[in-house]
Amino acid sequence: MTIHIPLGSFASNSNAEPSTPSSKYLIQSDDIHEDLEDILNSLKGSKRIVVVTGAGISTAADIPDFRSSTGLFNDNVSKGKGKGKARDLFHVHCLSSPTLLSAHQAMITSLASLAISAQPTPFHHFLASLAGSGKLLRCYTQNVDGLESKVGLRVGTPPSPTTSKPKTKKRKRHTTDDDDMIDPLLLLDNHSRSEEVELQPQVIPLHGTIHTLSCTHCHSKFPIGPYLPLFPGPIPCPTCDLTSTIREALSERSRRKGHLRSDVILYGEEHPQGDLIGGIVEKDLKAVDCLVVVGTTVNIPGVKRLIKEMSKALHHHHHHRSKSKYGNRAEGGKGKVILINDIWPKVEDGLVDYWIQSDIQEFTIDRLSKINDEEILEKEVNVPCTPTKKGLVYSYPPTPESIDRLRPNPHSKVISSDGEVETPTKTTTKKRGRKEVEVVIPTPISTTKRKYTKREKEREITPTPTPAPTTPISRLDG
């Protein structure tokens, strides 16, 4: 069962059950303040929060949603001949239909212009604060506006693994150099090392992005800004045109050229990075300790499956942790699935623990934005201050060196008030039972000459004999 917590303008109808098909899964909150305290404590105690967002978090930035009474899917737009709903313009068939392509390009132009000029909402800033405190494990968004990047979050799909290069035969080396034992990453500086090891995205757009165009043939990407407003017909790819021009100049066979299309994932097509996103989801399923679903009606099957798997994994892990010997400490209010939306979505029973029926931005300003402020204040108050040690005073017996440092230098010159240099005289004070003895270090000049003995004098006077020259002996011939 899900605890229903109506706030703001929805609190007046708290006694009446919500008029939704899934109202049988809901129970009214007995104590709203206590339930809100449990929710906030759950967010405070969690360290790996997964957030699933929908169009409801961007409506305050003047970006329309899709399924509300004023959403895009309820507006009729012109599609060449006759009228039709905007939902048809988000199907992959519109790319190959000349009558639907012009209306599709106009719709993308309108949404891209709004996304470029829009500013992040308070909930986007709350996501940034979660990431700044290290609590945001991942944000899976159904929006294509990219407002998360404007608050400093990394938005994108996981980097694809590098393709393995073909093996080449190399000569066997019988010796090992010292350089072979060094990790190549250690030879890089910090900037190069950060570029070598790519960071995982914090926000994964499940439905693509509206800020880029890609070629249907060579998959080259281009920012959408220079192409606004989009041409009503097919937009040629500059990369394919350049390649075709080069091949014609080289008299080579021409190849097929592609067209530019928006990187928004349309109905009827799969996400090109679906496998990579699935790998990230599998990792997050093992680490999540709190799930927050905001601003979505959960009508997309893929998003509904994502929330279902996250909720079941979260409740399963929380159930086993609560039975461990560290259950009370490991629990800490974690393991909750929190839904923040103005209407009840189509989810199964038991997946959501709390439904906060409120305006998203108002609840963010009144409640969520104060979580990090309170945590920062608690850290400042509860940080154990290391007591400053008082300086210990040690008393040692005096040494001759320390006594000499305290005595005035007798050779120092003092200048009197008249400007004449006065040599201070040494004054000695008599001490009881002890006399000061001035120690004079003898110098070679001050030492007296020692008397030499008679033998030493004779040794100095007697000259050293010089050897006599030897005459060569001549050969006697007999």
Structure, explained:
GO terms for molecular function: histone deacetylase activity, NAD-dependent; metal ion binding; NAD+ binding. This is Deacetylase sirtuin-type domain-containing protein. This protein has 478 residues and is α/β, with parallel strands linked by helices. Among the domains are: 1-61 and 120-160 and 197-207 and 273-378, Rossmann fold, CATH 3.40.50.1220; 64-117 and 210-264, SIR2/SIRT2 'Small Domain'. The chain is 30% helix and 14% strand. It is built from eleven helices and 16 strands. Helix 3 packs parallel to helix 9.
Keywords:
single chain, 478 residues, alpha/beta, Rossmann fold, SIR2/SIRT2 'Small Domain', 8-stranded parallel sheet, 4-stranded antiparallel sheet, 11 helices, 16 strands, 30% helix, 14% strand, flat, transit peptide
Cα-to-Cα separation, first versus last residue: 144 Å
| SS summary, helix count | 11
- Strand content range: 5-15%
CATH superfamily annotation of the domain at 1-61 and 120-160 and 197-207 and 273-378 = TPP-binding domain
- The radius of gyration computed from the alpha-carbon positions, rounded to a whole number of angstroms, is 43 Å
Structural class: alpha/beta
CATH level 1 name of the domain at 1-61 and 120-160 and 197-207 and 273-378 = Alpha Beta
* Low-pLDDT segments, ≥5 res: 16-21, 78-84, 163-167, 172-197, 325-332
Across the major sheet, the strand order is: 2-1-14-13-12-3-6-7
Proportion of residues in helical segments? 25-40%
